[in-house]
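step=encode ok
step=design start
structure_in=
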């Protein structure tokens, strides 16, 4: 387990934070900006939703110990 509980990271518009199917080791809280949650279906990306400031994402992989369900 990492020695740090909280790590600050900055991402630029268009950056991919994680991909569908990857192992999840972190959850994220958005300080500023927003993130699109994308699910590839039949080879095409579909935006499932957008999460804004104060929102959390990526936590399900920590809760159910399964791979990421979206990008």
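sequence_out=
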């Amino acid at each position: 387990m990492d020695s740090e509980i909280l790590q600050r990271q900055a991402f630029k518009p268009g950056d991919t934070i994680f991909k569908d199917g990857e192992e999840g080791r972190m959850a994220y809280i958005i300080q500023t900006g927003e993130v699109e949650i994308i699910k590839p279906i039949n080879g095409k990306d579909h935006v499932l939703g957008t999460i804004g400031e104060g929102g959390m994402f990526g936590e399900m992989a920590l809760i159910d110990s399964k791979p990421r369900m979206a990008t």
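step=design ok
step=annotate ok -> The chain has a mean pLDDT of 91.
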